[in-house]
């Protein structure tokens, strides 16, 4: 029977938290100025930060 080991690093948790907060902040920018270029950049930043948050969890956690 093979033993498995769970490894969690502070780096993974910190990066995931950072990118999640950035995504939340960018989402606020989308709602502050709907229908403008700021909303479009907010959406782009939210999607990018969300992808990076998921990647940080998979890579470092």
Low-confidence stretches: none
Residue share in helices?
over 70%
Rg computed from alpha carbons, rounded to a whole number of angstroms = 16 Å
The N- to C-terminal Cα distance equals 24 Å
Query: How large is the count of helical segments?
Result: 2
Could you give a short account of the major beta sheet? none
How would you characterize the overall build of this protein?
Helices cover 77% and strands 0% of the residues. Helix 1 runs antiparallel to helix 2. By secondary structure, it is mainly α. It is elongated, with a radius of gyration of 16 Å.
Question: Would you summarize the structure shown here?
Answer:
The chain has 61 residues and is mostly helical. Helices cover 77% and strands 0% of the residues. Pfam families: DUF7525.
What are the key terms here?
mainly alpha, 61 residues, single chain, 2 helices
Could you outline the blueprint of secondary structure elements for this entry?
Elements (H helix, E strand, L loop, with lengths): L9 H23 L4 H24 L1
Helix pairs in contact: 1-2
